[in-house]
Amino acid sequence: MRVPTSRLPLVLLSAAIAIVASTEAANAQETQRFAPTSDAGAPVESLPAPAPPPPTPTTPPPPPAESPALPALPPSHVPSVHIGARVRAAGRYYGVNGGPNASAVDSSYGELRAGGEIHEYVTVTLSLYAGGLNGPVGIEDAIIGFDFADPVHLWVGQMLVPADRANLGGPFSAIPWNFYQGVLAYGATTRVVAVPRGNSIGRDCGGVLWGDLAGKEFHYALGVFLPGASFPGATSPDSQPVAQTPLLSARLSVDILGKENGYVVKSSYSGEQDVVAIGVGGQFQRLGSRGVVPMNATGVPVAPGPAADDYAEFNSDVLIEMRLGGGGFFTLDGAYYRYVGNNEPIEDEVSVLGAIATPKLGIGNLQPYGRWQSFHPRANSVDLETFAVDAGLNYLIMGPALRIMLAYEHVDLGNHRRSDVGQLGAQAIFF
């Protein structure tokens, strides 16, 4: 059949639609032919597709509930107490005036110390001391301290007399074994040439007002000490009678470098800090310069003693201690004393010390040192020009807390009275 040209597009479109319809019908029949069947050949329904997994939560689960807190303990009303001990022991080998040499116990000394805060502004300190088998035993410190603020502290009881660095620093922080200038090892004994007033252990009973000023760079200590009975134990044969009037004692110091305490200082800081400090001190006691009453061989007075005079003392000291590399440090210490009173045997005293500690060698530092002391007598004194030379070697295992020492001291009292003493000892501190 012949189709007109004008109707040809319409015919072609109709034919295309018919082809598409027949193709979709054939596909539907083919799908039924291959549908899943059972074992008997019957068609079965297809299994549904598995459900997608639940979405992962984007927020973390809540934390577990906290257990209830334990009830707070009630505050303790028992004050904390610090307990410690300090021990020194040494032997000596000596010779006097070129005579035969001998050996003796140099020192055997121990302290038991306890202290603590019993109130926000109140502390208590108690210490006992013993001087070996035949030495004195007694109370060393018995202090109630009212510590109001850095500039104002008031301590009462039995305590150190604030006069010079040597007394306030004590034997345990000092570099020489014979720590106090004017207290010399002579033969088997200890000879007191000249020291500021204080009891046999550098303490007395009274009160001290002290404090730190100007950013803890300026320090003061003002003490008043009442006369009392001497400590039990042996009294040095050259000691002077004790005056029955109050002793006034004061010390002022300034820290150019480093920080010190206003009252109890150290003779050496063993490399803990760099220190440059200057101090001055003084004492006064009315009728405190008292002479020794002459006695016969049996101890009976044979004449009245010299008239009492007012006693005064002035001292100054300088400490320079600087750290070196590797844990070493060096120390320079100088002190001058002036004693006033007609019955004072010594008028001027000078002491100079130098020491250097090496870097660590083994478990400690080696510290060689040397010291020179000179004593100029008063014009009316029976004492002569006296000098002493010390040389020694310390091994500082834990600074002053554990050290071993080897020392030598030569003393010349004048008029051919000389002594050479070698000492070997150790000290330990636990506090």
Care to describe what's here?
The structure is a single chain. With 431 residues, the protein is mainly beta. Helix content is 8%, strand content 48%. The chain has two helices and 18 strands. The chain has helices spanning 8-33, 165-173, and strands at 81-96, 102-119, 122-130, 137-149, 152-160, 183-186, 189-192, 203-213, 218-225, 247-257, 275-289, 309-323, 329-340, 346-357, 365-377, 386-396, 402-412, 418-430.
Features:
about 425 residues, mainly beta, 16-stranded antiparallel beta barrel, two-stranded antiparallel sheet, 18 strands
Distance between the termini: 130 Å
Rg is 46 Å
What characteristic shape results from the CA principal axes? globular
Q: Please outline the major beta sheet.
A: 16 strands, antiparallel, barrel
Question: Which structural class do you get from the secondary structure elements?
Answer: mainly beta
Strand order of the largest sheet: 1-2-3-4-5-8-9-10-11-12-13-14-15-16-17-18
* pLDDT < 50 runs, ≥5 residues: 1-6, 8-13, 26-46, 231-238
Number of strands: 18
- Mean pLDDT score: 84
Percent in strands: over 45%
The secondary-structure element order is HEEEEEHEEEEEEEEEEEEE
The percent of residues in helical segments reads under 10%
What is the number of helices?
A: 2
Subunit arrangement of the protein: single chain
